[in-house]
Amino acid sequence: MPGNLLVRDGRLAAVIDLGAVDVGDPAVGLMPAWNLFDAGSRETYRRALGVDDATWERGRGWALQRAINALPYHVDTNLVMAAIARRTLRAVLD
């Protein structure tokens, strides 16, 4: 999630996210492609990682699942998280 990115001197310094530590699927790590990047950056990210099609689609599925769960949970209580969920849904469906 964007809020879990730590930036130092304008560069990514760390990522903090323990929410899916027990999942065991490397595709979980692909969720930033949809909840953070625009279409062009998403393609650059995919090429840089060199993941196969099946892993990429699982990552898309994880992003979809998390956004579907997050939106109704946060829609009235956390406008930032709700906006990220909406953005993710648009990106996944793009």
What does this structure look like?
The chain is mainly alpha-helical and 94 residues long. The radius of gyration is 13 Å and the shape is globular. A two-stranded antiparallel ribbon has the order 1-2. The two termini are 19 Å apart. The model has no long low-confidence stretch (mean pLDDT 88). Helix content is 55%, strand content 10%. Strand 1 (5-8) and strand 2 form a beta hairpin. The protein contains 4 helices and 2 strands; from the N terminus they run E-E-H-H-H-H. The longest helix is centred in the C-terminal third of the chain and has 22 residues, at 53-74.
Précis, in short:
By secondary structure, this protein is mostly helical. The chain has 4 helices and 2 strands.
Estimated radius of gyration: 13 Å
Strand order of the largest sheet: 1-2
State mean pLDDT (0 to 100 scale). Answer: 88
The share of residues in helices is 55-70%
Low-confidence stretches: none
Shape: globular
* Order of H and E elements: EEHHHH
| Helical stretch tally | 4
Strand content: 5-15%
Biggest beta-sheet profile: 2 strands, antiparallel
**Counted beta strands:** 2
Helices and strands: which structural class?
mainly alpha
Alpha-carbon distance between the termini?
A: 19 Å
